[in-house]
Amino acid sequence: MILSALLTSVGINLGLCFLFFTLYSILRKQPGNITVYAPRLVTEGKFQQGDHFSLEQLLPTASWVKKAWQPSEEELISKSGLDGFIFMRMFIFSLRVVSVGGIVGIFILLPINYMGSQLNDHSDFQNKSLDSFSISNVNNGSNRLWVHFCAAYVFTGVVCYLLYYEYGYITSKRIARFFSSEPLPHQFTILVRGIPVPPGCTCNETVERFFKEYHPSTYLSHSVIRQSNKLQSLINDAEKLYKKFTVIKDKSEVAQRQRRDGCLGLFWQKVDRLDHYERRLLDIEDNLRMEQSSLSGKEVPAAFVSFKSRFGATIALNIQEGIDPTKWITEKAPDPHDVHWPFFSESFIKRWVGKLVAVVACAALTILFFIPVAIAQGLTNLEQLETWFPFLKSILRMAVVSQVITGYLPSLILQLFLSAVPPIMIMLSSLQGYISWSQIQKSACTKVLWFTIWNIFFANVLSGSALYRVNVFLEPKKIPTLLAEAVPAQASFFIAYVVTSGWTNVASELFQLLRFLCNLKSRICSGNRVDDFEAPSIPYHSEIPGILLFVLLGITYFFLAPLILPFLLVYFCMGYIIYRNQLLNVYVPKYDSGGEFWPKVYNCTIFSLVLMHIIAIGIFGLKKLPLASGFTVPLPILTLLFNDYCQKRFFPLLKDFPAQCLIKKDRQDQDDPHLSEFYDKLTRAYDDPALMPKKYTERNDSPTSPLLHNSDV
């Protein structure tokens, strides 16, 4: 790719970003868009709608930037939890890494690369290949490569220091939030699966007898789980129908309620939709009661078991309860609001099979994704396109067309295909039998992350060479050489990818185009209603992998093609302020995992560093500087030793709280006069909400108490 093609891509995406910022600045002030741009404020009752129209509502302003910048970290934690806080710390960490890399890369490495003559590119500046700004242009055997060698060591040390600092800072915030929090149900509760129920006994009796015998001083109560998939499906149907019912009920004119009782509402006689929906709701209520009653004998060999102290729950969690490790399997209980009942799987073998199916499906999806990767890579090569489509040769040779095709379309095509991956990974993670939405999202986040790294980074890097170099992966000594040849060659593609996918995507996150169009349709069809919507939660499983891919690109290309770093710096700056705004105004946290997303950020950064070192070993070898290549070998070893230390020093604090913290917090609670009231709530906290009474109509025989009570002791 030549420099003018990159500038064309930058111009297109800067225009799109400016358009999104302008539209957001105007549309967010319109009262009809409050559920799009401030749904969190609406649910919290903090949104104040203006009474009169003013010209200011049609003028773009940047006041939202100041409002997003002002809240402190403590305010952000209180509003978005530790997960939201860590999400923003990820941007801060990335900004620091890219800033340090940018200073060294732009002011030291880039001039050295440009002054080289290895590529013999004598074009004028505008038509210079981007490879002229990369390490590929440095002459073989040049002593200037020692500057790159030193930069790799310095940069690795800085990144490791920043990782250590962030890990320590995040764990300290996690412990501080733990001590400042009120007693929470999931701190006192564990989930037990694979309960061996003897013949003639119920699961409820087995759990009660077991924990009274082996945890007599700390056991409080339990809630046996019942499989309520069918019941939840009925409730979902009822909720959708009830929304339609309330919309029709608000219409004053009888004529607006009329509809023909035939195909698509076009045939047969007219009926009153209000009566029709009410009759259907009555039928669903009856079906719900019947299904709830039938579940009284359908116990699942799993239960939520609550204890009188956090320390007691932690002891039960971290010891093997039975002789058979596939029975009495314990794991941390999620927050009651985080429990994802429909996809619960109680069986050890079912979860194992589900995990196997998910792995196979991910592998298949990864292989199929090579098709759009091949298409995108084909677009970066005009000569190949002319071979495929000779009748378009004259069009392809036009300057503007060639710049748009090579600088913009490849990244756009990849991004369109990649947008379908997160929902698929959520579905696959759901099959693995996780009990909570947070576990499903964390699992999906890992799948999307490695899918993204492999299909966006490695597949593009090895495209066209991997097919006839598969045997190289059987000879590890040749891997650094292969990567050293392939990775710098794709620098121009990834620079364009940062601009196309990074800048425009983060700006579109602010604009919320899809939600804006859905809201517009809803307003036209059913009027402006703000009482029947649910504020969204941030999709960590799709957002975090995309950000970490850019971290990988920044670290990997730091000394190979430092020209990428300013574009990454712009991306992280935009992302930081935009996502702060979204966390404060749009997204409502559905759960708080307590900072468990940070290890994914940490592990990806360590992987990126080691990958950079392997490429450096290969690149110095290719550049006829074997001594520098040999001196680079200790770098990945030192990085892995640092990783081992950090994993032992910090990771246990994210996995669980130490006994010192648990016992101290339990002793503080003993002086709490509301502790007994909390225990009463704890015994009912993990009752399946699908078994609670549901009332959608105003008939007199509607229940006022649960149809089915979980036995608590």
Fold and architecture overview:
Helix 8 packs antiparallel against helix 9 (273-294) and helix 24 packs antiparallel against helix 25. A four-stranded antiparallel beta sheet has the order 2-5-1-6, covered by helices on one side. It folds into two domains: 3-183 and 477-649, no CATH class; 185-347 and 673-691, no CATH class. By secondary structure, the protein is mainly alpha-helical. The protein is globular and about 85 Å long. 61% of the residues lie in helices and 4% in strands.
Present the secondary structure layout.
Blueprint: H1 3-27, H2 34-37, H3 39-43, H4 63-69, H5 73-115, H6 145-180, E1 189-193, H7 203-214, E2 219-226, H8 229-249, E3 258-260, E4 270-272, H9 273-294, E5 299-307, H10 310-318, E6 329-332, H11 348-368, H12 370-379, H13 382-388, H14 393-396, H15 399-407, H16 409-418, H17 421-430, H18 437-462, H19 479-489, H20 491-511, H21 513-526, H22 540-556, H23 564-585, H24 598-622, H25 626-632, H26 634-649, H27 651-655, H28 659-669, H29 675-682
Antiparallel strand pairs: 1-5, 1-6, 2-5, 3-4
